[in-house]
Fold these 3 entries.
Entry 1:
Amino acid sequence: MNGAGALIKVLENEGVQVIFGYPGGAVLPLYDALLCSDIKHVLTRTEQSAAHAACGYSRSTDKVGVCWATSGPGATNLITGIANAYLDSTPLVAITGQVATELIGHDVFQEVDIVGATTPFTKHNYLVKDAADIPRIVKEAFYIANTGRKGPVLIDVPKDIQEKVRNYDFDVEIALRSYKPNMEPNFRQMAKLEEAIKDSKRPLLCVGGGCMLSRVSDKIIELSNKINAPFVTTMLGIGAVPTDHENCLGMIGQSGLKAANDAVESADLVVVLGARLGDRATGKHNSFARKAKIVHIDIDPAEIGKNHNTYIPIVGDLDVTLTKILKMDIEVKSNEWAADIAEWRKYVETTGACCENGLDPKDVIEALSDGADDNVILTTDVGQHQVWAGRFYRTKTRGSFITSGGLGTMAFSLPSAIGAAMANPDKRIVTIVGDGGFQMCLNELGTIKQEELKIGIALFNNNRLGMVRELQEHFCGARYSSVHLESNPDFSKIAEAYGVEYILVDKKDQIDAAVKMLLTPDKIVMVEFDIDPNANVKPVKAGE
Amino acid sequence: MKHILSVLVENRAGVLHKVSGMFGRRGYNIESLVVGVTQDPSVSRMTIVIDGNDNNVEQVNKQLHKLIDVIKINDITKTAISRQFAFIKIRCTPANRNEIVVLANIVEAKIVDVSPEIIILEVTGDEDKLSNIKALFDKYTIAEMVQTGVVAIEKGTSSLKV
Ligand SMILES: Cc1ncc(C[n+]2csc(CCOP(=O)(O)OP(=O)(O)O)c2C)c(N)n1
Ligand SMILES: [Mg+2]
C-alpha cells in the first residue's frame, strides 16, 4: 500500500464519507487511491469553495468536514476557508499535496509553505516527513479538530510520501501528551455561580456558537425556563438554539435587535455560554452588560477575560457544565423584569425600505421564516442580507442556520449550502446571497448541478455592495466609493446557462409564491428578489 | 514587569515558528527567547522573557497552552536563578591592553582570545551584571558584542517535568 492509500484508509476509519476538493499534480496519488474507496468526492469549482463546503457539511452534521487540494495555488486557495473555519471553531481537516520532500525549499513549481502560511489560523498543522507517520497524524488531526475548542487542522503531504510503498500500522495510538481539554468546571466557581443565580433578579443567558458545537440546545431552554431567564444569541448562536422560542429575544450586538441589546444592558446577571464576546457582539470595549455580573463559560480558557472582565470564569465543556447547573437548586420564580421585556418586544425593527424602490428585505426574510418548517437549513453569505437574516429569521431547530460569523467571508453561501446538502439529502437547503457575494461563488452552480443538489437560492439583488454602502452612508457622509455594481449581469441568463430554474420577484405580492418555490423539496431554483438599494441594517445612524 | 516563562515543548521542527508566531501575531513583545534540548531528547525547553502586566502574561500563558506542541509552562519569575552569556570583542592597543586585562579580571570576565589588536571576553551573569560590564568597557572600542537571552532554572527541589 502507498501513502495515499494509507491516508484514505485512515479517513475511512474515521468515518469520512465525503471529501470536497480539487485535483492537481501534487495530489495525483490521492485521487488515484480514492478510486478504490467508497468515500464520495465532490468537485467544487474552486478550492475555497471546497473548504467552505466542508464547513457547511460539518456544521450541519456535527462531523468533521474534510477538504483537500493540490500544492501551491490549490493550497493557497483553501486558505480563506480554513481561516473561516478557525474563527467559527468549525472542525475541519484540510489536506494539501506538497512537492516531493527533497524539493522542499527550492521554490520548485507549485511549492508554497502552506504549513507556515496557515499556522496563525489552524488549531494545529502538520508536514508529513515520514510516511510511517500517516496513520498517527491523520488520527491526531481528527481528534484535535473535533475536541476542546474545535477548529481546522491542516496536513501537508509531500508527493513522495503519498507514493511511498511500505507496511502501514493502523493500530497506532495518538501521541498528544500535552493536549487535554478541560471538561470539568471548577467547583468553587460553580458554587459562586449558584449564588449569583439565586441573587439575580434580572438573569439573562447569552448563547454563542459553542452551544451549537456542544449540542446543548435543550439544556439551554431547560435552564432558561427553570431560572426564568430569557436568552439572547450572538450571530453564531442563532444556529445553536431554536430562536423562535418564546424566551428568545434575538441577536445582540452592533447589528442586533433592540430587545436583545436592551436586555443585555439592564440585566444584573449575564451567563455567557460558548461565546467569545467579540467586538461585533459587544460593541465598544467594556461597554457590554455594564450593570451585570458576567459569568463566562467556555471550553477555551484563553477566551475568558480576553475581551471582557468576568465576574465568574468557568472553563469547561458546556454539556458537562450545564448538566451540573441544571442539578442545582436554583428555581428563581420572581422575575423583576418581565414587564420591561414585554415592553422591549413591542419595538418594531425596520429597514427603512420604501416600496417604490424595491422590496423590503424584512418582508422576504419573514416570509421565509414563516414558511420554513423544522426541515429547513438556511445558509447565508455576508452582507446586509446576512444581517437581515440574523435579525428576522427565526430558527425552528438547532443547526438550521449556518453563516460566516467570525471572518465574515463573502462567497460562503453556495459552498456551505453544498456541504449541508451533501450531508442532509432529506432536508431542504436554502441559501441567501447578495449580488456581490453571488458573483464571488456563482461558479458553484456547476457543482450544484453536477451533484443534483436540491438547493433554493435566494438572491438579494440591490445592485450594491450593500453593507459597505451602508457603512459609507453612516460613516463617510454618504460619499459612495466603489459600492455600485452597475454592470450586474442578467442573472436569469446565468441561471439558464447552468440549467437552473429562475424566478424574478419585484413586487411584494409575489414574495409568498416565490418563497414557496424556495422551500419546495427536490427543486433547484434561484429566486432573484429586487431589494430596495436604500434599505439598511440600521435605518438610523449607527453608533448613536 | 518582566516575567520569565519556562516552557517545555515537543522537540520538533516548526515548534519555534509556532511559538514565536503567536507572540508576533498577538502583539506581545518577546524580550528574549532561548531554546535548547532538555535531559529528555524529545523535549526542548524555552526560556522566554516578556514584559507586561499580569493580564498580558496570563493571556500569553493561555495562548501558549493552546499550541498543541507546548507541553508545560511555568512562570518562574520569583523563584529563578537566571543567567545570560556574552562575548565582547574589544579593540586594544599596546598602551591599554594591560588595563583591559586588569579590568576583566576584576569583573570575572574570562579572556578567551587575544591578538595584537583584539581581546575577546566571555561573560556570564544576570542582566545587571552584563550591562554593567558592557558599560565598563564602553570607553574602549567595542568592536562586536554577542549575547544570549536569559536561561533560568528554579532554585531548590522543584523542577519542571513533562
Ligand atoms: C471576501 C470579502 N471581501 C470583502 C468583504 C467586505 N464586505 C462585507 S459585506 C460586503 C458587501 C456585500 O455585498 P452583497 O454580496 O451584494 O450583499 P449586500 O450587503 O448587498 O446584501 C463587502 C464588500 C467581505 N466581508 N468578504
Ligand atoms: Mg448587494
Note: DSSP finds 22 helices and 18 strands in chain A.
Entry 2:
Amino acid sequence: MIIMDDKKKNLLKSSLGVIALLVVLLLLPLIQTSMMPFIMNLLIMSFIYICLAESWNILAGFCGLLSMGHCAFFGLGAYITVMVIIYFDMTLLLAILISVLFNSILAYIIGAISIRVKDIFFAMVTLAVAQLLFSLSMQWVDVTRGPRGLIMPPLYNLDRRYLYYIALAMVVIYVAIVLLIRRSRLGTMLLSLRDNEILAKSLGVNTSKWKIVATIISAVMASLVGSFYILYIRSVQPGSVFTFDVTMKIMIVAFIGGRGTAKGPILGAIIIIIDELIRGWLGGTYAGLPGIIYGLILALFVVFMPNGLISIFNLKDKSTSRSAPKKEVI
Amino acid sequence: MFFEVEGITKTYGGLTANNNINLKIEQGSIAGLIGPNGAGKSTLFKIISGFIVPDRGSVRFKGKSLTRLSPHVICNCGIACTFQDVKNFPQLDVFETIQVGAYCRHTFKRQAASRAREVMIFLDLIDQKDQKIVKLNMLDRKKVALAAALATDPDLLLLDELFAGCTPTEVSSLLLTLKKINQELGITLFIIEHVLKVIMSTCQLVFVLDDGTVIESGTPEQICMSKKVISAYLGEDYDASQHQ
Amino acid sequence: MGSLDFPSFMTILISGLCTGGVYGLFSSSFSFQLGALNVADFSFGSWLMLSMYLTFFMYKEWNIGIIPFGVILFGSYFIISFLMSKFIYIKRKTDDNMIITMGISLIIQNAATLLFSSYPRSLGIIEKTIVVGGVQITITKLIMLFLSAILLLGFQLFLNKTWTGKTIRAVVQNKEVASLMGINSNRVINLAFSLSYVMLAASGIMLVTLFSVEPTAGGFYQMMSFFICIIAGLGNIRGAFFSGLLIGFLTAILNIISSQFAMVMMFLIFVIFLVVKPTGLFTAKSRG
Ligand SMILES: Nc1ncnc2c1ncn2[C@@H]1O[C@H](COP(=O)(O)OP(=O)(O)OP(=O)(O)O)[C@@H](O)[C@H]1O
Ligand SMILES: [Mg+2]
C-alpha cells in the first residue's frame, strides 16, 4: 500500500508540473511585448516538431520500424491540403480530410511493405518514398510549380494567436494519444511485435494488421501536422518538407527527448528552439555550422545517453523506454 | 478426430527433417514426442503451429484443415505453443506478456487483464506480476511462457522441451502444473521431452521420431519394450526398467 | 525519344555503363559492410563525398603527387574507420548505428559546406573521346570502368587467396565457429570494415574524375549504393558490381525516356523492387 501511495504522489507531482507548464503556455500570448511574435514562432515551430516526433515514435518506438522518410507523410499532408484548396476550390476542412485520406493510402502501402522488409530495408524503403515525393514535387512543375512551391490563398490567413493555440492543442492531444496507445490493446500488441515478432505471432497477434494500423495512425498524425504547417507558413516547397533534414529533425527531437516515450519529444523540442536561435544569430553566415552541431548532438546522444533527456528527469511514464541498448560482444 | 497430422513432409535441401509423418491425438489426453537430437521434433511443432510451411501433408484440428494458415490464425483456432529456446518480450513485464496472449480471445483491456490475472493465479505467478521477464529465474521464465500460451485459451498445447535446463525439483513442480492444466482445464497436451521421467510418468501415448519418420507409437510401456526404439533411440544396452 | 539516332543512343548507353562500373565499385564495398559485417552505415555517402573533395583539392591546389596523396588518404580512412568500428559500431545494435552514422554523415556534409561552400566543384578534365562507327566513347570513363573492375578483382583475390582475407570470410560466414577456431572475430570485423573504407576512398578518387562534387552529393551515392546492393543481394560483392553496371544502364535509359522524371522513375523502381524481391537478383551463392 505504501508503494501505491508513493506512486500516486509521483503522479500528482508530475501532473502538477504539467498543469503549471500548460497554464504558462496558455497565458503566454496575452503578454504584450515586441518579442512576442518571435517567441510564438519559436514555440509553434517546436510544437510542430513535437507532434511530428510523437507520430514518428509510434512507428519507431512502438513497432521498432525506423521510418527514415517520415517527412513524406508530413509533406504530403501539406501539399495535398494546399493543392486541393488551390485547384478544386474546396473548403479547408475538406482539404484536410482529403490529405488524410491520401496519407492513409500511402501509409497502407508502407505498412504492407513493412511486413515484407525489416530493419534497414524498411528504413531504405521509407527513405526512397520520401525521395520519390521530393523528385516528383520538384519535377512535376505543371502541378507543384517545382522548386518555387505552392502558396496558400490569402483566404485562410489566420491570426498567429489562433495558430498558437491550435498547435498547443495538437501537442496536448498527440501526447495524450501516445499515452493512451501505450496503455491500450494497440500498445501491448505493438510492443510485443517489436520485442519478439515470432513469439507475438505464436500468441495469436496478427502482426501484419497491427503494423498497418500503427503506420496509418502515425501517418494521419503527421499529415495533420502538415496541414497545420501550410496554414501557418502559408507556402510549401519541396525543399522545406520533403528533404531528409526534416526527417532528421524529427528523429533528433525524438531521440534527444527519449526514444519511444510520450513525454520525451516535449523535452527534445529544446533542440528546435536552440536551432532556431542559432540560425537567427548566425544569419546567413557559417552555413553548415548548425548542421554540424546537430550531427554531433545526435551521435553523442545515442552513444552517451541512449535513453534521452527523459532519463535524467526520470519522469517514469510507464513508457517504452529502452534499457541501455548494447548488443552482446562475442 | 480431435487432432490429426497426415503425411507431413519437409525437406531442407537434401535433408529430410520430416518424412511422411502421421499421428492422431485424442481430446483431453497427454501425448509425448521423443527422439534423438535432430530427429525433426521441433520442425513438426513449427509446422503444426504454422511457422513452417510443409512441402506436403496436412494438419487437421477439430475437423478443420490448418495447412497454410498463418501462426496467429492457428493460435485463434485453439493451438498454442511454447518454443524450445525460451522466448520472451524483453521490454514487457510478466503481466503484460500474459495479456498479449489474453488479447487473442478478448478485445477489451479489462477482460484481457482479468484473464491474465486468472492465469497468473493458476500458475502461481502473481507475486512476479510487475517484474521484467529478464529479471526472472529460468523456472519462472518457463512458467511465464506457459502462462502466456495458456492465456490464449487453447484446446491443444504444444510444449517444446519445456523442462530443458530445469533441476529435478523444478521438473517435479512443473510436472504437477502440467497435470493440473490437463485435468482441471481439460487441455490436451502434446509435449517434446528429453527428460524421460516426464514422458513416462505423464503421457498416455508416445510417438518416437527418428530421422524424420515416426518409428513407433504406443503407451510408454510399449515404447520401452520396443526393439526398434531401443536400438534407434535409447541405445543398444539401455535398461528400460530403470525408467518405469 | 523518336529523334534520337542509333549512335547517340549507344553513346548514352555506353557512358551509362562506364559510370555504372564506378557505382559498382563503391556499392560493392558498401555491400560488403552491410551484408557481411552487418553495419548499416548511413555515413557512407558522405565519406565518399569527402574523398571526392579531397581529391579535387589535391589536384587543384595542394600540389602533392597522386601517390603520396593516395597513401595519406587510404591510411587515414583506414585508421578512422578502424577506430570508429572498434569503439562505436561493434558494440551497438543496428538501430543505434543507423542513427550514429547519420549524425556523422550530417557532420561531414555540413563541415564540407562550411569549409568548401555548397558550390559544386568539378575537375574539368578535358574529355578525350574515341569514335567507333559514330558512337562516342569517353576515354576517362572507359579507364574508370576498367580500373574499378581491376580493383574489385584484386579485392576478391585478396579475400580468396590471402590468410587475412580467408579469416575475414570465415568470420563473415560464421562468427561463433571462427572464434572457436581462435580467430579474434572483433578485430577481423574492424579490419574488414576499414578495408571497405579504403575501397570507398578509392571510389571517391575515381568518381571525381567523372562528376562534379558538392556537399549534398553523398545522399545520392548513398541511395544508389543501397539500391545497387539490394538488387545484388546483400553481401554479394561481385553481384554488386554487375548491378552497378545494370543501374548505370538503367539510369541512361530512363534519362532517354524522360530526363525530367528519370529520378522519380528510379525511386519508384527501387521501392517496387524492395517490395517484390528484397533478397536481390544475384542472391549470393558466393558471399565475398
Ligand atoms: N532452417 C533450417 N534449415 C536447414 N536445416 C534445418 C533447419 N531447421 C532445422 N533443420 C534441420 O532439420 C533437422 C531437424 O531439426 P529439429 O530442430 O526439428 O530437430 P529436433 O528433433 O527438434 O532436435 P533437438 O532435440 O536438438 O531439438 C536437423 O537436422 C536440423 O539441422
Ligand atoms: Mg528441437
Note: DSSP finds eleven helices and two strands in chain C.
Entry 3:
Amino acid sequence: MEDKISNKNSSKGPSRVDGRLKVTGAAKYSAEYALPGMAYGVLVGSTITKGTITSIDTKKAETAPGVLAVISHFNCPKVPGYDSADPAVKGPLKIFHDNKIVYNGQPIAVVVADSFERALFAAALVKAEYNAEKHHTNLKDNLTKAVAPHDDAVYSRGMPEAWKTAAVTVEQEYILPSEVHHPMELHAIIARWDAADKISVWDKTQGVKDTQSNIAKLFGIPVDNVQVHSKFVGGAFGSALQVWPHEVAAIIGAKVVKRPVKLVLSRADMATSVGYRPHTWQKIAIGASADGKLVGVVHEAAGQTSTFEDFAEGPSDVSRQLYACPNVSTSNKMVSLDIGSPTWMRGPGPATGTFALESAMDELSYKLNIDPIELRLRNYAETDPESGKPFSGKNLKDAYRLGADNIGWSDRSQTPGSVTKDGWLVGYGISGGVFGADREPVTLTATMMADGKLVLQTAVSDIGPGTATAMVAVAAETMDMPADKIRFDLGDSAFPAAPQQGGSTITSSVGSAVYMACRDLKEKFQQLIGNGGTDKPDYAKVLKQHNLQRLQVTADSKAGKEVDTYAMYSWSVHFVKVLVNPATGVVKLDKVTCVADNGRIISPKTARSQIIGGAIMGIGMALMEEAVIDDRYGRVINSNFADYHVPVNADIPQIEALFVNKPDYNINPIGAKGMGEISLIGMAAAVANAVYNATGKRVRDLPITPDKLI
Amino acid sequence: MKQFQYIRPATQQNVLDAITKSGTKIIAGGTNLVDLMKRGVTAPDKLVDINHLPLKGITPTKSGLHIGALALNSVVSENALVLQKHPLLSLALKAGASPQLRNMATVGGNMMQRTRCTYFYDTTMPCNKREPGTGCGAMEGYNRMHAIFGASQQCIAVHPSDMCVGLAALDAVVIIAGKKGERRIPFVDFHRLPEDHPETDNHLAKDELIVGVEIPDNNFAKNSYYLKVRDRQSYAFALVSVAAALDISGGLIKQARLAMGGVAHKPWRLYDAEKSLVGKAPTEENFKVAAQIAMQGAKAYEYNAFKLKLAPASISEALKHAAGVV
Ligand SMILES: Cc1cc2nc3c(=O)[nH]c(=O)nc-3n(C[C@H](O)[C@H](O)[C@H](O)COP(=O)(O)OP(=O)(O)OC[C@H]3O[C@@H](n4cnc5c(N)ncnc54)[C@H](O)[C@@H]3O)c2cc1C
C-alpha cells in the first residue's frame, strides 16, 4: 500500500495527554458532576433468586427525610422500548417492568432523595415480600442442559475423532470461575430531562454513540434528542458496552422527580449489575504424532448465562486458528441459570479458551518431552488454518525469540519440580494469545485553528488505555507538528460517529481516521501554499495569509477489500517465571515478560502501560479472582474488595513489555493493531504452566490458590 | 446506614460514663466499625470517639512493655522498643491489612475487630453471631476461611486479627478500665470460643474500655517469626498464620511459644506443641512432631479441609524461620 504513515519510530511518543489531569484529580468522571437541583438514586436489590414479588412496603421509605420518590414495578412510568419489545425474544433485564425475580440482587426499586445518604438510608427501609421458587445457579450441576446459542457456535474441519488415533494424547477438563470486571471507577450516571422528549446523561460508557441510540430507542425519542457525555472513564473492560438497568432507573427517576438524578452503583452492585466473565467448563482432547505435530483437537466449552439473555463468549474458537492442525472441532455452549447476565470482559472468548488450549499444549509438551516453545514452532500456522487466507501480518516467531531471551528461558528445566532457589521451587511457563484485529467505520474532523492548534474530534471513548494520547501521536507524525499543539476531543455524542471502545479496534479504526484526516488537511494546506512551499509549513501563518479562521476536513475511514483477502489478528506470547513455596503452596511471580506482535507501536509509553495492565489482570485471573455464589441462596457472597481478590502491588513482579513492532500495512494505513485484549489473553495459562514446571502439579481449575498446591 | 449521634467526651471517665448507655459504641480508627455500619451489621445510636484520649504511649515498665490502646498499628510496628524487644509483634502487625489501614487502626480496635465471615457480613443471610438464633450460614456453606479448632454448632467463624496472634504468643496482658477501676486479664483469655453465645466475641463488658496491653520481657527476640499464608501477598486475611517464638540456648529450646490465626474463634495457642519442643534441639524433625501435636482435635468442613495440611506445614515452616534453620 503506497498511502501509509511513515515508519520512523524514532521517538518514545507523547506522554499521556491527560496524565496531569488524572493525577491531580482534575479529570472529571461521570459521578463527579454536580447539576443544579440534582437528586440521588439508590437501588434496592432482590434478596431472593427466583420467583415473584408479592408486595413492596415503601411507606417507611417514602416518609423518611428527604425522600422524593420510591419507584418499583408497581408505580414505574412506562418505558416505551420495553413495551414495544417482543416478550418472547430474550434480551436485557427490563427494570421495574413486572413482578418477576430472575436473579439475586436484581433491582426491584429505586429510592430517590435529596441527598445520597438519605437515599441510602431510605433504601434500607424498603421491604419486599416474595413468592420464592426453586432456583438453579450451579454450572456443574446443570452442564447437561448446555445448548449452543447459534449455528456458528459449533465448528468442524477434517475428522473430529482423529486425535484419538495420535501417538500421544491429552484429554482434560479446565474450569474458569466467574470473574467480575471491577474497574476502579464505579458505574455512574447522571440523567437529566431537558424537555419532555430530550435527555442529557453524564454516563460511564465505552461508546457514547451506542448509549445515545439505545437510550433514544428505550424512551422512544429521536436520537438527536439524547446527549451523552463521557469524557473520562476509569476502566471498564467490557462492563460499559451496553445500557444497563441502573442507567434506565436513573432516567426513570429523573422523569418522576423532575430533577436530575445521579445514580452510582455500590461496589457490591458491581458484582451483579454490570455483567461478568462467565464461569466456564471446558474440555480439550488433543493428539499429536511422536515428533509433536498436531493430529487433532477437540475443544468444547460451556459457560453460564442468565435465563433472560443468551450469551456465549466463544472460548473454543481459539482452537480453530492458533495452530496448524487438519482435524479440529469446537463448540461453544451456554447453560441458562438463575443469575444476572454475563457480558464481554477483556479478551472475551480467547482469554478463557487459551487457558484450556495452552494448558493442554503444555501438558502435551511434557508427554512428548518437547520444549513448549519448540512444540509451538512445530505447529506454527503460516496461513490461517480456518479460512486458508494469508495473515495480514504475523511475526510470532520473532515474539517467541524476544521473550525467551528476555525471561532466560534457557535456564528452564524440562523436568518439573527439579529446580529450587532459597527453598522455593522455580518454574517457567509460556502461553500464546490471539485476538481478531478489526477496523470499524469512523468519521472524524480535523480542524486547524487560527493559532496553529490542531483539533481532532470524534465520538470515541477512552476507558483508560490512552486513546487520545495515541491519536495525538498519529496526528503529530502525520502533520509533522508538535504533540502539545494538538487536542483530541472524545467522549461526547455531539462528535462525529465512532465505534465503542471494545474488542481492541480503536487504535486501528480511529488511528486510521486521524491519519486520513491529517493527510487530507496537509494536502489542503499544500494547495493553499501552491508550488514552492516547504515540507513543513507554518500552519497558522498560512491561515493568516489566506484570511482564514480555520481549515477543516472530515475523514470517513473504514475497512476495505483487505477483509476478504487477509486473516487479521494481533498476537501475544507471555513468559512467566514463578517461585512456589513447597510447604505452604504460596506462588510468587518472579518475572513476567509479555511480547506483543500487533503491528506498529504508535505510542510506546501507553502501549507499555496497556501490556502491563493486561498482564496484571491475567495474573489476577490465574492466581486469585473468583466470584463465589452460595448456591443455596443463589447469592454472590464475595461482592467486596476484601473478599474478591485482585492483585495488589506485592503480587506483581517486574513486567517487561516487548514489541515486535513490525507495521501491518495490509490492515490499515498506520500499520497498527490493537493490544488491549492480547495483553491478557494467555496469561492465565502461562502462570499455570509455570506452576506445573515448578511443582509437577497441574491446576486445571482457576484460580491457583495455595490450597491447591499443598 | 442508620443516622447516629457522635460525641467526643473529654476524659476517660466521661467515656466510661457515656458507654454505659445501650446503643452506644466506641469508635477508634473506625476501619472496622464504619464498614459494619455501612453494611447494616451494626447500627449504633451513638458513637463515642476516643481518639483524643492519652492512650497512645509505648513505654517500658518494670518488667515489660506497655502499649496504649490507641497506639496506631503502623506506629507500634515501627516503634524502636517493639522492634528490639518483640520483633514478632512488628511482623504480625505488618502482615495485616494495608499501610493505609494500619495508619488508622488502633491496638484496641484491632483486638475488638469482628470476624470476616461472609455470612456475618451479609444481612440477608443467617448468622448466629449477628442475629442469635438465625442459624449458621457457614456451617454448610462456603467455609473456606473458617475454623478448624474450637468451633461450635452455633458458629465456625474465625477471629481475623494478625496482631492478636502475636500478642497471644507473647503472653501479653490486657488492661481494662471500667466503672470499678482497672482490671488485667491474660491476652489468651480475652477472646472467647463461640460455644452457645457466638454473638459475644470476648470478655470485655459493654461498659468497659481497653486502655492498653502489656508484654512481659522475654528471651524470644532473637528467634521469633510470624508466617502468614494468604491468597495474595498483601491485603488479605490469613488462610492460616503462625506466631512462633523460641528461646534457644546451648543448642536447645528452653521455652517455646506458638499461636495460630485463621483457625479458631480466637487466637489459638498451641500449648502441647510448645511443651513438646522444650528441651529439644531446633531441628526440622522436632518441628514437624510439634506441628502434628498441634493438630490434635482439628476438624474441617467442606471447603477448609486444606487447613489440616496447611496448618502443620505452616507451623514447622514458621519454627524453621524462627530458629533460623531455613
Ligand atoms: C480491607 C481490610 C483488610 C484488613 N486486613 C486485615 C488483616 O489482614 N489482618 C488484620 O489483623 N486486620 C485486618 N484488617 C482489620 C483491621 O486490623 C481492623 O479494622 C483494625 O485493627 C480496627 O481498628 P480500629 O481502630 O479502626 O477499630 P474501630 O473500627 O474503630 O473499632 C472496632 C471495634 O473496636 C471497638 N473499640 C475500639 N477501640 C476500643 C477500646 N479502646 N476499647 C474498647 N473497644 C474498642 C469499637 O467499639 C468497635 O467495636 C483489615 C481491615 C480491612 C478493612
Note: Residues 506-529 of chain A form the longest helix (24 residues).
